[in-house]
Description:
Blueprint: E1 7-16, E2 22-25, E3 33-36, H1 44-50, E4 58-63, E5 77-81, E6 85-86, E7 96-101, E8 104-113, E9 117-121, E10 131-142, H2 145-150
Antiparallel strand pairs: 1-2, 1-3, 1-10, 4-10, 5-9, 6-7, 7-8, 8-9
Amino acid sequence: xxxNNNHFVSLHFRLTDxxxxxxESTFDGAEPMQYLxxxxxxxxxxxxxxxxxxxGDQLTFSLRPAEAYGLRSVEKKQRVPIKYLTHEGPLSAGxxxxxxxxxxxxxxxxxxxxxxxxxxxxxHPLAGxxxxxxxxxxxxxxxxxxEIAHGHSHAEGNCGH
Length: 161
Ligand SMILES: [Zn+2]
């Protein structure tokens, strides 16, 4: 079966940046990544690159920021109370943090720390980067109507609704 909208795709991927530095890999024993294709769970360029691949196919491709996580922009700067930040170690400029928002936990990067608040760049940590992917498609299957409605897999029976 070829990857198309509303198919569950299970794949291994290796992601590196322009200097060849490894950002993330699910090869070498990690759980494969699974997502529902065509539902904006993955960057647009990623979905476009692997569309119509089938089980067992491998592909190497690169995405520019505009096709992936966008450009790093000052408009994503927000002032956040420090109590909403999750982080390890002391807070300082450049530190990666997680922010508890009404929409869930979002990643961000500290720009400036004050007494009670911090200025945080809410751009995705991969924003502004060219991304280089190696992928291997492990499985492709059609999602059920219920899975499409929920936007996630019920294969492991872990859905509470
Ligand atoms: Zn569900």
